[in-house]
């Protein structure tokens, strides 16, 4: 019963979420396969925001909350891996288009 009340109270956000899901599926579904790699490597670079957010959360966390600090460290580590991986994929992809000597 609480779930129905939540949906009723937040129905505009639920409608917006469903609309975003359908629009996202349509947009991604119409992208040619050749463009998926550059788009995904660029999207991985956006994870720099995750890194900054995790660092800010860790800065404002008391020293005795070890779980929050550990999750923040994990978020920084995984976000960094994603950013570096995105740039590595982009670099390798751009190397394919360079003229061979």
Report mean pLDDT, rounded to a whole number.
84
The ordered string of helix (H) and strand (E) elements is HHHHH
Give the end-to-end Cα distance, rounded to a whole number of Å: 69 Å
Strand portion? under 5%
Question: What is Rg?
Answer: 20 Å
What count of domains describes the coordinates? 2
Number of strands: 0
Number of helices: 5
**Net shape:** flat
Classify the helix fraction into a percent range. Answer: over 70%
SSE topology:
Blueprint: H1 2-9, H2 11-29, H3 36-45, H4 48-59, H5 66-96
Helix pairs in contact: 3-5, 4-5
Main attributes of the structure:
single chain, mainly alpha, 79% helix
Question: Can you offer a commentary on this structure?
Answer:
This protein is mostly helical and 101 residues long. It contains five helices and no strands. The mean pLDDT is 84.
Summarize the structure.
This protein is mostly helical and 101 residues long.
